[in-house]
Every structure is written in structure tokens, then in C-alpha cells.
Amino acid sequence: xxxxxxxxxxxxSLMVAGIMAxxxxxxxxxxxxxxxxxxRQPAFTLISQVTDINPSNPSQQLHGQQTRYAFSDGSYHxxxxxxxxxxxxYFFKSGAGFFEVDGRHQQLVRNSRMSPDAGGHRxxxxxxxxSDPQYIRxxxxxxxxxxxxxxxxxxxxxxLADLYFAVETGSTPLKTIDYGKNGIIGIENPISIVFGExxxxxxxxxxxxIVEMKTQQSK
Length: 219
Description:
Helix content: 10-25%
Mean pLDDT: 82
Number of strands: 12
Distance between the termini: 21 Å
Order of helices and strands: HEEEEEEHEEEEEE
Radius of gyration: 17 Å
Structural class: alpha+beta
Strand content: 35-45%
CATH class: Mainly Beta
Largest sheet: 12 strands, mixed
CATH topology: outer membrane lipoprotein receptor (LolB), chain A
Strand order of the largest sheet: 7-8-9-10-11-1-2-3-4-5-6-12
Number of helices: 2
């Protein structure tokens, strides 16, 4: 039976979905031949309500609030606070790479699979989003037009995530529905967005030593 611990684990699948979305758009840029030059990215602060639901037991849910700081150089910093005291934090710093904050062991766990130079491609236009094979429909969120992409497993065809992109937020989905491999449905629903460069100091995580993902201590 799926437990609350499983619900907590599904927060990681939401993070992976966000990274996957980023990779999808980078791939689109590479195919179009405009990836060599770095471009200024949309800068904003996005606050979302996060809910993880166990479909086999709808009363078993995890709720929380997430804040994403997105910077014009492609960096971003995400902090999640759950109602049960659960916390998650991760960030991508342009030129340095992607890090997950391990507060328990006071270390920054670097994921070397993400290039430190990622995040500099040209934001896609509405027409490019509409023409993507993953596009399924258009909606409106927070007054912005969003283009919903349905991501499926290439081999099995299993539905993995629905990603809601707005031209104004570039490669960051405004909303995410993650259908997680463990059967937990994770939803990041936007509450508010404020455009403009966040405080530059927010690009950095805690001043912890850096370790590679493979050396992360067992939890």
C-alpha cells in the first residue's frame, strides 16, 4: 500500500518532470539550429500550490507551497514547504550546474547530467509551441495563454506529464501535472507570478560543500 512516504518521494518525480520539460525544449531548439547563442531568459517569481494525490486513497494527500525564482541568465532556484513540515530545495546556476540541497547532511548534491551551460536557448514562440507534436490544447492561467504539452514514454506510450507553457515564462512550465511511476499524481498549480529579476542573491543555495550525486549519503 502506498504510504505518506511514497507521497513525499513523488515530489522528486515532479522535479524530474520539470527537468525533462527543459530538455524537451532544448531539443527543439537544437533541431531548429538556434542553440549556439545564449539568450536572455524571462525573469520572474512564481508561487504554486503543490498537491500530491494517491488515486487509490484520495484522502491521502500532501499539500504545500512552492516558490520558483527564475533569472534572466537561465538560472533558477526552487523552494518547497509542505504543510507537514516537509521541505525541498534545488537550484540551477548558470555556469555552475544543477544542485539539490541536502539539508540533513548539509551538502549540495550536483547532478552532472545537466550541463552548466544549459538554459541559454532562445525562448520559443507561440507558433513553435503550437506546432510541437506534444501539443494538445490551449488554456488560460493567471491571464496568460498556455500551451499544454503531453509527454509520453517513447517506448510504452504511457502518459508521463502534462506541461503548461506560456511564451512569457520560456522553458518553465506554468503548471505541471505529473503522473509519476509510483501511481501518485503530483500537481503544481500556479497561484501568482510577478515578472522582473528576483534578488540576485537568491541564485545561490546554502554555503554547503558540493558532492556529486553518486556520493550522496543514504537517507
